Fold:
Amino acid sequence: MRKQLAVSIAAATLGLALAAPARADITGSIDATITLEAGCIINGQTLSDGAGAADFGTIDFGTQNTLFSEADGELISGGGALRIQCSPGIVPTLSFEAGENDGSGAGPGAHAMAHASSPGHYVTYNLYSDAGRSLVIPVGGSLTLAATGTEQQIDIYARAFGEPGLVTGAYSDTVTVVLEL
Structure:
């Protein structure tokens, strides 16, 4: 009887081992989230609201002699004028704040470029919103853009003014520009 019981137990154990394993399905989920904030593309640079260090471009008045009376320039960025595209529904305002040398120099311009190595020498200039250079953009002045969500081209023009006593060399200035969303 012991032998028969041992064989029965062995057979039962073997049967359990050969039976299909128990199976249970476990289900769950994956959460996906995204938070979108207002932003703009400025001359091909994608920037979020609050980002700094955007490159709005350069105004180059070229090479003039020290006796020039006026020299015209315009904003040049990666392929021409300033190009801005902001999130749809946002009414962006482009503000032109102070330059590094505003109020310096004897010329009629509101901004001034300082001589690179000879302190006290300045070339004044103004920014304009029209090609005829009749609509001055004052220090702190702004331009309101459309809220279309499409790329907009903003042409900014400039005029530098000569004055007596200018010395040869390179002059420069940096105007702070703020795109308010």
About this structure: The chain has one domain: 50-180. The mean pLDDT is 88.
